[in-house]
Amino acid sequence: MAAGETESGGMTEYIKHHLTHLTVNQGHGTFWQIHLDSVVFKLGICLTLILVLVPLARRATSGVPGKFQTVVEMVVEFVDGLVKETFHGSSKVIAPMAITIFLLVFFENFMDLLPVDIVPYVSKKFGVEHLRIVATADINNTIGMALCVFVLIQFIGIKEKGLGTFLGEFVSAPFHAHGVVGKILTAAPNLLLRLIEEAVRPLSLSLRLFGNMYAGELVFILIACLTLESSLTHVSTYAFGAIQLIVGFAWTFFHILIISLQAFIFMMLTIVYLSMAAEHH
Hints:
The chain is mainly α. A hairpin with a 7-residue loop joins strand 1 (23-25) and strand 2. The protein has a domain at 32-51 and 68-159 and 206-278. The protein has a two-stranded antiparallel sheet. It contains nine helices and two strands.
């Protein structure tokens, strides 16, 4: 019984430690907190993308491109084609914005492929006890990105249709009625359905990305627990190490597909939502 409690407690503490953010408290309660690790790694990825892509754009040639420029051009052409097929408005910022979203979300997700103990181990040497490196596994970060998309949706809708038409659609769709009485009767249900539709979009974007990345991060932590399991149960470390290596590689290859797919889905849904906002009913 004591061994079982020690094992459970050791693994539980290990998991809790890796799932605890480096926070900055604001005020006296625990609600107003800033997850400093998510902010730092997100800004670090943004800065890295700027430092890499801006010089590349300045050195871009219309002749025979280098390997890195070729890869970037393939991504740009692919996303630009998706935008042209999906978005039928006149805005020229949608394609650059979609590429930015894809790259940002992809590289935030990519941090999950780093060994779970390396960065926290290094940070602990500098006195930082808790540190999570996957910003998209933080619900605050994904909700923040989804709210930015939500604001952009409203902006595109007003820009493409005008404020009067944009607000009028809140009470005139999806139920269309003729005559003053019919329009008055359908205004309330139309407004309710439209508000639900608008609220679901940021929730869908944020919770889908957060759920998948949080689960992926937790699986990597559980795989890392195999080493702790061997020391607690006095089973051969080599046996657990071999299992950990096989399972870790298998999950890593599968997770590469997940992080790419989640970045693509977030980008694609953003384009679709913006296209719907620009279309006239």
